Amino acid sequence: MSTYDLYTTPVDRGTWDVPAAGAARFSWEYEDGRQRLLDLYQRGKDKQWEVLSQAERDELGHHLGSWLFSQFLHGEQGALTVAARIVESVPDMDSKFYAATQAMDEARHVELYQRFIRDKIGLYYPINQDLAALLADALSDSRWDMPYLGMQVLIEGLALAAFGVHRDLTGNPLVKQVLAYVMQDEARHVAFGRLALRDYYASLTSAERADREEFVVEGCYLMRDRFRGREVWERLGFDVEECLEFTEQSPVQQAFRALLFSRIVPCVKDIGLWGEKVRAAFAELGVLDAAGTDLEALMRDDEDIAERVEQEHAAEFAARKAEVDAAIGEGES
To answer: Which of 10, 118, 217, 219 is the most buried (most CB within 10 A)?
Structure first.
């Protein structure tokens, strides 16, 4: 079975070509699919959900999980393409070397997420149009720093925070393991973007810096809208405007949004794009306080959690092996 047969709504079977020096081609076929198995993204109760039956809530959870991980998957294909673009366009050889290693990381992430969705969820959602718009903007700009800014700072910064929220909330050990391992790589990628852009932006003129700040503001609103879940509400026949209003006003969702921007805001400040327009946008989004976040501490925490997950996995494997060996020994005796 083709991936195209598992999308919630039809998608173009051709490639998505983003005009650039050469077209950046995306394909939404990742591999054939199997039975849906995993119900993810169980959020807290609220009065609007209490009218749903358990079967309806299970279906909603399944679609939210499919939508969430589909966006992770499509974003990783975008990161793979942008990493290749950075290898082409960045002016110094050290950055070319690192971007080449990032391309390999992103290829692993695409493979990992597509296998997870195929084998454990069995249902795909098309790419969110806000994510697609920011990807297209980053890839089609001829200036070498714009793919860095769009992908390494905005898209991957938000994805890294989203991975962290779901890593910490999930009770599913496989989901926790997948996200923890991916986050080890992504934290390095965001750090790479910071290092590459910090010195360069210090040398820009005021007009050049203002242009980048405009891009950041537009990109952040796109990233805010990326996680509103419109596609799910439409697919399941909910009142879309009511659901969007709820996601905008809910204290839980506002806290979630603040966490999502916890990596972007301090990074934008660190690279020097901290003009009045950027600060005003972050204030309107309710995330300005994130400017004081310690990015280095977050990265250390990501590494520690990944190592702990690995140790727990190794211990579980050793315990299971010992159990099997004991059972074999008893059978032989």
So the answer is: 219
Which tokens sit at 253? 């969702």
| Global model pTM greater than 0.90 | no
- Euclidean distance between the first and final Cα of the chain, in Å? 47
pLDDT digits 0-9 by tens, 159-183? 888 899 899 989 999 999 999 999 9
Q: If you search the block for the tokens 């005021």, which residue do you land on?
A: 206
pLDDT at 259 > cutoff 50: yes
Rounded CA separation 185/331 (Å): 44
